[in-house]
Amino acid sequence: MGVIIVREMVGTSSHSWSDAARQAVALASKTVRNIKTVEVIQSTARVEKGEIIEYRVQIKLGFEYEE
What's the whole-model pTM score? Predict the structure, then answer.
């Protein structure tokens, strides 16, 4: 493995924190090749009327640098 570039992003889901992370990786993989790692930094949620309506995860995405 060579150089790994790390970028932060936020994923969202109406279902769960793990789904929010999966969706963020799936979206990133459309434009970023060689994704190697994902680290969940923070999990939060948006609440309305006492119910969670949106799950959010802040992640660090690591991908291998290509020349």
Answer: 0.86
HEC string for the chain: CCCEEEEEEEEEECCCHHHHHHHHHHHHCCCCCCEEEEEEEEEEEEEECCEEEEEEEEEEEEEECCC
Task: pLDDT band for 44, please (50, 70, 90 cuts).
Answer: very high
Q: Contact at 8 Å (CB) between 45 and 13?
A: no
Q: Map out the domains of the chain as residue ranges.
A: 4-64
Strand 35-48 and strand 4-13: the pairing is unpaired
Query: Per CATH, is 4-64 categorized as 3.60.130.10?
Result: no
Q: Which residues contact 66 (CB under 8 A, 6 or more apart)?
A: 33, 34
